[in-house]
Automatic annotation (TrEMBL):
Domain Methyltransferase: 38-134
Protein name: Methyltransferase domain-containing protein
Superkingdom, natural source: Bacteria
Recorded GO MF terms: methyltransferase activity
Organism, scientific name: Candidatus Campbellbacteria bacterium CG22_combo_CG10-13_8_21_14_all_43_18
């Protein structure tokens, strides 16, 4: 099975496009102060594009591999009289003649790129699109989360386990947050609904108690 083609097919289904047609940032995403020229990779139906476009207007470029997701995103922008450069593209084959202050893979979108080598290719390509001092921001499912790690150890498909989620698309559920090149800064995003004991443990040991982790790759040329 060509997992990338299968994901494109699944993400183009109307019920999945409808499911992702919300337009608000998640609590953990609000910690990032995206300013300037921003490239969003895996923008879906516009959940992240529209809130940023409301603040940044013409500084947003966004891509997704699903034509139906892009169509819905454009409809959402038009309805709100917002502007963004939104189009269908594959992150691992992306060619743009401009540079960005921030390049963002929101909500585990990097975990849906297949084959695995194309994730590294996408990161290498996009790193070349950063301005001086620019940043790539992505989050990935944390292999070392205590519940996932036991399953990882018993897996016969190391180092990545491919799961099919309820909507039918696939991703690497236990991705390795240490597996990519670049300078990394851990951003610990604690769920506000956590009980107090879990908030404390998450602050002390984020690698064990967070289901996903944020990784920031900085352009060190500044």
């Amino acid at each position: 099975m060509d997992l990338q083609k299968e994901n494109t097919r699944q993400y183009s289904k109307k019920e999945i496009v409808d499911y992702y047609s919300t337009y608000s940032l998640r609590p953990d995403e609000k910690h990032f102060n995206f300013e300037g020229d921003v490239l969003i990779i895996g923008c879906g139906a516009g959940r992240t594009v529209i809130p940023l476009a409301e603040n940044l207007q013409n500084n947003i470029t966004a891509i997704d591999i699903s034509p139906e997701m892009i169509k819905r995103c454009k409809e959402g922008l038009k309805k709100r009289n917002l502007k963004a450069n939104v189009f269908v593209a594959d992150a691992s084959e992306l060619q743009l003649d401009r540079k960005f202050d921030y390049i963002w893979f929101p909500f585990h979108s990097i975990d849906s790129i297949f084959p695995i080598k194309n994730r590294k290719k996408a990161l290498k390509i996009t790193r070349g699109m950063l301005k001086n001092g620019g940043q790539i921001v992505y989050n990935t499912h944390n292999r070392f989360f205590y519940k996932y790690f036991l399953k990882y150890l018993s897996s016969l498909t190391k180092p990545f386990i491919k799961d099919i989620v309820p909507h039918g698309y696939v991703y690497s559920y236990y991705a390795n947050p240490f597996g990519e090149e670049g300078k990394r800064i851990w951003r610990n995003s604690i769920n506000p609904k956590f009980p107090k004991w879990k908030k404390i443990l998450s602050s002390i040991l984020p690698i064990i108690f967070n289901k996903s982790v944020y990784i920031v790759i900085k352009n060190a040329t500044k």
